[in-house]
Each structure stands twice: as structure tokens, then as C-alpha cells.
Amino acid sequence: MIRVTLDLTCSICDHDQFFLPVRAEEIQQIRCANCTAFKCYSADLENTMIALNRDRNSRDSSSRDSNSRDERHPSRKERLRQDRANAA
Ligand SMILES: [Zn+2]
After folding, report:
1. The pTM is what?
2. Interval between CA 52 and ligand 1 midpoint (Å)
3. What is the pLDDT of residues 14-50, one digit of tens each?
4. Out of 21, 27, 33, 42, which residue is the most buried by the measure of CB atoms under 10 Å away?
5. Beta-sheet strands, E only, within the chain
6. Which stretch of DSSP H or E encloses residue 69?
């Protein structure tokens, strides 16, 4: 397992560091580095990261000169929740 800081937060403790599996034979699950709750499967995380990057890229290209855009958009956590709801 490797410990990494991700652009995600734990749904339980809001921590942003996670343990990722590095070997194929390890269980493909992401664990919070703080409370050790299982965050999600790595495949789901990958999809989440792709969705976040796509979301961020499209927004950056349309409002690159805005410094206050974070205030106008839902928090990172709310966006994650929306992504899950959309995926379900
Ligand atoms: Zn946690």
C-alpha cells in the first residue's frame, strides 16, 4: 500500500490522504489513511478522478480568469456526492 494525498476527501472524517494498493494481488480497495474506512474500490476512484479532471478542465477553459469560482460552485464533497448520484 502507498499513502497518497488525493483530490478527494473521506466521507467519514474528511481526511484527504488514502492508502492505495500497489500490487495486483492486493485487494483493490482505497482506504482512508486517517480512519482506515474503506473509501471505494480503486476502479471507482479512477472513474471519479477522470470525472473530476474532465469537470475541472471544462470549467477552467471557460472561466480561467475568475479567482472566486470556488465560492460559486458546490464544495468538492458535494460534487463527489452528485457524481455518485449520477452514476447510480
Ligand atoms: Zn477517514
Report:
1. 0.42
2. 20
3. 888 988 877 776 667 788 888 887 765 555 666 777 7
4. 33
5. 2-5, 17-20, 29-32, 38-41
6. helix 69-72
